[in-house]
Amino acid sequence: MKSDSPRTFRVKSFGCQNVYDGERMAEMLGVQGYVPAAEGADADLVVLNTCHIREKAAEKVYSDIGRLKRADGSTPTIAVAGCVAQAEGAEIARRAPSVDVVVGPQAYHRLPDLIARAERGEKAVDLDMPIESKFGALPKRASGQRPTAFLTVQEGCDKFCTYCVVPYTRGAEISRPFADLVAEARALVEGGVREITLLGQNVNAWRGEDDKGRAIGLDGLIRELAKEDGLERIRYTTSHPNDMTNGLIAAHGEVEKLMPFLHLPVQAGSDRILAAMNRSHSVESYLRIIERVREARPDIAISGDFIVGFPGESDADFEATLDIVRATHYAMAYSFKYSRRPGTPAATMAEQVDEAVMNERLQRLQALLNEQQQAFNEASVGRTTRLLLERKGKLEGQLIGKSPWLQSVHVVAPGLAIGDMIDVRITSAGPNSLAAEALMEALS
Known about the structure:
Blueprint: E1 8-13, H1 19-31, E2 35-36, E3 45-50, H2 57-67, E4 77-82, H3 83-88, H4 90-95, E5 99-103, H5 111-119, E6 124-126, E7 148-152, E8 154-155, H6 166-169, E9 174-175, H7 178-190, E10 195-199, E11 207-209, E12 215-217, H8 218-225, E13 233-237, H9 246-254, E14 261-263, H10 271-277, H11 283-296, E15 301-308, H12 315-328, E16 332-337, H13 355-378, E17 384-392, E18 398-402, E19 408-412, E20 421-429, E21 433-438
Parallel strand pairs: 1-2, 1-3, 3-4, 4-5, 5-6, 7-10, 10-13, 14-15, 15-16, 19-21
Antiparallel strand pairs: 8-9, 11-12, 17-18, 17-20, 18-19, 20-21
Helix pairs in contact: 8-9, 9-11, 12-13
């Protein structure tokens, strides 16, 4: 590489909550003169922006680090960021000597300085959780050609579910200021974004004051953002049942730009297990929320999260989980086997469930969830809806967009481009995507 060539980078983010952080790190590196590495090319700097929610997250990070070794035996500058970095700390640098930078999710605004230290031969580790917000230290949002974007509005969690590491890796709940969020959303729209997904570890816990000093919740923020000309769609994730306020439920029926999709994790269908998880909601209260949301927006798609094999889960407890799935009728859902997280209360609980039992239960649960997802998709056949085209498909002239219900939809639409909106008719449904025919030219 020529000495005057710009240094290249690649950011690999795991989990939707990390997409925003990954984009912001990329923007910071751009300010420092780095450019994105070409597809398939080696990068001078690789940032692994990690998530600790999924099973064996740390081991997967070490595996990814090993794959970064080049054919000649060299490695790029490697930075491990995010929740695994926070949880593993300096252990990463000890166990994986090729890692140059370890930075937690609340300190990544210092990434350029950490990289500079690494280039001087230091092992740069920053796991600080500063009181001051990192957001003020980040550069302004970069404009681009993308039609969708994530906007982090809230971080951290105060719920302390007994299986979860988020309160320890992300810290206490904090809400970003209203004015900052409105300004950032406006900059995104001016850069061509037509859909914004509001992000938070517990996004519906967001609280703030509007421009008149009035206390508002997430519904108030959504209503304000909906006033932005050019912003066509608003989504939010991930929510907790205890923070589904009356105002937020009402917004689903009153704000046209708020898409008819709600991801509301329940985790289990047994009140006994929910109490052991410290979920602070019951099966009855969860189902009542779903009922009220559907009253406000009858066509809403419901998504959820489930954990099987939590310590002490009996056959009857698991059957109760299947019952709540049958009662809710999910459009899609995520399901996982319980896995111990060091430092969490559940990791030391008695009655850890046998791996073989967890496997069998997960297969049964996923079979039911897949059946419901297929049924939801098949019910869409014949429906006319509007797509926001987000990326190219594999076929000539094919584009892929998202329906209002977050379904991936393939359509052959010659002459149209990413970022266009188009009316389509759904013609067929598979388990994970739909096919459609275009009904008209792109909508402005």
